[in-house]
Each structure stands twice: as C-alpha cells, then as structure tokens.
Amino acid sequence: MTKRILIITERADVHADLVADRILAKGHRPFRLNLDEFPARFSLDLRFADGAWTGSLLHQPSGDTLWLSDIGAVWTRKPAEFAFDSEDLGAQEKAYASEETEHVLLSLLHSLSCFWMSHPIAARAAQWKGEQLLRAAAMGFEVPRSLIANRPEPVLQFRHAEGGDIIFKTLASPYLGADKVSPDECVAVGIATTRITDEYVAMIDGIGEVPCFFQTHIPKQFEVRVTVIGDRAYSAKILSQSDPRTVTDFREFSVAIPYEAFTLPEDVERRCIAFVHSYGLSYGALDLIVTPQGDYVFLENNPGGQFLFVEQLVPELKLTDAVAERLIQGAADGR
C-alpha cells in the first residue's frame, strides 16, 4: 500500500497548494493539516497500547481520514495559530487550549518514524543565524565579520575598524514583529538590510532596547539563492546590483531585477548540500554573495525558506516538482 504524505501548513499557503496538486498528479494522495483549522475541523482518535500509538485523524469537511500507520512522509511547511470551536474563549482558556493542542500535536508528530521535510527538532536547531555563521566558517565558507551589541560604543568601534562600511540586519525576521500583531497594533511593516551611513550613526543610541546584529559590508558582483532539496542543489543567480534599490537587499520584490539559472562551482555546491544535511535537514534555502573577485560568501540558511518566487522568476528550476518528488520518494522508502 502506498504511504501517504502529511502536509502541515495553513489554508493560505500557495506553496502547499501547488505541491499538493503535483503529488495528486503523480498518483499519490496527500493529507493536508491546516493548523488554522486544527483542532476545530478535525477529529482525533489516537490510542496508546502495546508500546505504540495507533489511530486516525479525520478532516471533517472532506471526510478524509489519515491513519497513523499510513504516514510515510511529513512536510512541515508553515506554522499557524490553532482554531477552536468556540470563538469567544477567554484569554486563559485560549492559552490553555493552545498549549494543550500543541502538546498533543507535537507528541503525535515526534512519535512518527517516517521521512521528514524537515523534522521540527532539526528545523528549530538550524534556525539560529549566529550558530550558522560558526558552522559555515568551520565548513570552509567565507563569512563576514560580525558584531552583536546593544550599546553604541562597540558599534562605532566596529564601524571604524571596517572602514566605515557596515550593515545592520535582523536575525529572527525582517518584519519587526509586524506579522505577530493585529493590523491596528502594527507601527512598522519591517526593515531591509541597511548600510549604516552617517545618517544612521546619528541615531545609534536607539539600539539600547534590543541586541542588534551588524556585519561588515561585502561588495557584490551578484547574489545566489541556493535551494537544497534532498541531495540536490538548485541555484539562481540574482543580479541585485542592476538596480540601486536592491544593491544592499535583493528582497525588494517590487523591483524587477533579473534572475537566472546558475551553476555553482562543484566544491561550493557540495558544501551547501553538506551544510543543510549537517542539521539533519532535507530542505534549506541558502543566500550567498559572489564578490567582484569571484569569492563566495555565506550569509544565511533558512530551513523553511520560500522557493516559489525563485521558480516563478527562473521557470527552468522545477522546484515545486522537486519538492513533490522528494516527498513521494521519502514516503516510498521511509527515509
């Protein structure tokens, strides 16, 4: 019997929509667990006996039932807040319900023996950008000199030592918490990677509230987005220097800069794949700089990074197919 693929995400996830369609087109039936419908739209019947969990998860609207014994692969695509039958839960009631639901779900998931893209424990261990720099350097990547500080003096000293050319970037998220609050509570939508010019130095006292991350500015010839799926790496060349608005941060998606399919040097490609695998991950999205001298500089790896925008801009990189095929293969062989 063909094992099923469990996709854990939310309703508004185009990545999951497209991958699920490809999995269906290849003759397999995914089961989608939208966390923003869970547990309100699902029925659980899970039992522990004789040293094992058995049972099922029923999606009430569709009637689709997923038996634990049928799960061959899990794609942990996107988190979301849980949904409950009652919409008027008090603050403490909702806190208890959320904690208990998370405990049940993670207990279930962590008990599975199957293929993961990627396991929650591995993905969480891989997300810390400060540790990534240490690991990348140990694996032979060139890594920018960096500083973490919450006082002006070390930042000014670092800027002077780097010839006055440093950048600020966020570590957890560029959204500045905007995605964690309601629209009426939002005061800023985010911040891009920013060069610390004299204008910003005049405001440097503002870093006292939160530890801030700075790096030496690395001149760019172009940038590369490397998407590792299983044992393969798919690379896109990003000509970010072609427009002044994307010179420092290519993630200004309102600007139409060129993207091209790109072939990494073999040693760099092997290192990217090895870096992702070193965490026990089967997926990762790495950002690299290529300097005017042709050196490759590691910036970061996102263990759950978006891939659809890359495929839309470089259609020959069949990333959606690659994800679907890796999940199908993982479900078939269990690893």
TrEMBL record:
Signal peptide: none annotated. Gene3D superfamilies: ATP-grasp fold, B domain (3.30.470.20). It comes from the Bacteria. Residues 5-119 form the MvdD-like pre-ATP grasp domain. InterPro entries: MvdD-like_ATPgrasp. PANTHER family: BETA-CITRYLGLUTAMATE SYNTHASE B-RELATED, RIBOSOMAL PROTEIN S6 MODIFICATION PROTEIN. This is MvdD-like pre-ATP grasp domain-containing protein. It comes from Tahibacter amnicola. The lineage of its organism: Bacteria, Pseudomonadati, Pseudomonadota, Gammaproteobacteria, Lysobacterales.
